[in-house]
Design goal:
Layout lengths: L4 H9 L11 H26 L7 E6 L5 H23 L7 H5 L6 H25 L4 E6 L2 H27 L2 H8 L3 H5 L4 H18 L4 H26 L37 E2 L12 E2 L7 H19 L8 H17 L7 E4 L2 E4 H23 L8
Antiparallel strand pairs: 1-2, 3-4, 5-6
């Protein structure tokens, strides 16, 4: 496993770049996931705008308006934080041995902070002077909101609301996490303990709210966003696998069937060496051991993130083909719900999650929600195919 990009490049390519210890490998893939989702969403919004399903949105913007004092203060503060940490890092790279703790500590360079503050303050001033030369007087302009702006804004909405939802649902599933979160606060306590369905539900609410405020028909917008969700989900699970963040399956000591002899052993059962959470027992001395990590699981477990990546990307490709063939508005969105619910139901059979007793059933939170998601998807798909107006989506 590679807790950070530093460990990955050092092990795979022999590159020793200590500053990359600041880049958590799970976070890196999460960023890639949002970039991929934003790209697919941008393409779909452009396509649906050309076909007339989404009307171009006009916005007004004021040009030539002097920046507020708060704008300058914010720029200076951001510059101070960047300079405070980076300059100190240049002169004392040893702090990278525990990069997350350094980032959230009071250690830093006051001189570096002042240089950074002055630098961003000046850049903000230069930006204003450049705009002032183009707009000597305050002017109100209208512009057409491009698809990429919608996509970027939606990615931010999904990220913020998705993170809040993922954290809240995990707390609901494991109330003891609240105490641990506040008594042992750390970067890992913030980034770990996330429930995908909590992120999906609140993220969807945030996205639909954006559609409503910007005049985008909810189901049309949902169709545009849905395929990218599955792609992002699959890429995010790569981050789970690479970092070994605990999103693995139950113990798997079964012998690999002869029919799967072509399958690499690590795709059947895996011990997650050097996992980012430090779970398991110490690695043997002859193994590659990363400083600050060095544990593995005994016995090995099902590497469920790999399976979820393969299924999610495969389902994305199916939806990407169907998006130009299914003419009913909302069909792609509801089909995505059904696909995701079915996928999650089956993967939960070999995942590690707490059971919840409800209505005589003993299932995981994800299993209950996957049943609901699947029902919504199937019923919604049948409804839109029968009742909703169809349009030409082949362009």
């Amino acid at each position: 496993m590679y807790p950070t990009l530093y460990h990955a490049l050092k092990d795979l390519l022999g590159l020793d770049l200590p500053f990359l210890k600041l880049v958590n490998s799970f976070g890196f893939f999460v960023v890639l996931a949002f970039i991929a989702a934003a790209w697919t969403l941008s393409k779909e919004i452009e396509r649906k705008t050309k076909s007339g399903l989404i009307r171009p949105v006009k916005k007004k913007v004021n040009r030539g308006v002097p920046p507020s004092i708060m704008s300058y203060v914010t720029s200076a503060l951001i510059g101070f934080i960047i300079g405070y940490k980076l300059i100190y890092l240049v002169f004392d790279s040893s702090v990278l041995s525990d990069a997350p703790s350094y980032l959230f500590s009071s250690e830093g360079s006051m001189i570096g902070g002042l240089i950074g503050a002055a630098g961003l303050f000046y850049l903000r001033y230069r930006e204003w002077k450049s705009e002032k030369s183009q707009y000597p007087t305050e002017t109100e302009e209208e512009y057409m909101v491009p698809a990429r702006e919608h996509a970027n804004n939606l990615a931010v909405q999904a990220a913020i609301w998705g993170f809040i939802g993922a954290k809240l649902f995990f707390i609901f599933e494991d109330p003891d996490h609240i105490k641990t979160f506040f008594t042992n606060f750390s970067v890992n306590s913030v980034l770990s303990g996330l429930t995908i369905y909590g992120g999906l539900i609140l993220g969807t609410i945030g996205v639909l709210r954006y559609f409503s405020k910007n005049g985008i028909p909810p189901l049309v917008g949902a169709d545009a966003a849905a395929p990218g969700f599955l792609l992002a989900y699959g890429i995010g699970r790569i981050g789970c696998q690479v970092s070994g963040d605990g999103d693995w399956g139950i113990v798997n000591t079964a012998a690999k069937p002869n029919s799967l002899s072509w399958l690499p052993d690590w795709m059947w059962a895996y011990d997650y060496p050097n996992n980012v959470n430090g779970v398991g027992v110490p690695l043997p001395d002859e193994a590659t051991i990363f400083e600050g990590y060095g544990t593995h699981l005994v016995p090995p477990v099902w590497p469920t993130p790999i399976y979820e990546t393969l299924m999610a990307v495969g389902l994305f490709l199916i939806l990407w083909v169907l998006r130009k063939r299914l003419k009913a508005i909302g069909a792609i969105f509801f089909l995505t719900f059904a696909f995701n619910g079915i996928e999650r139901w089956f993967i939960e059979k070999i995942r590690v999650n707490e059971k919840i007793d409800f209505l005589g059933l003993s299932l995981t939170q994800a299993e209950y929600i996957s049943i609901l998601i699947t029902l919504i998807g199937v019923i919604g798909f049948i409804w839109v195919m029968r009742k909703r107006p169809s349009v030409d989506v082949s362009t």
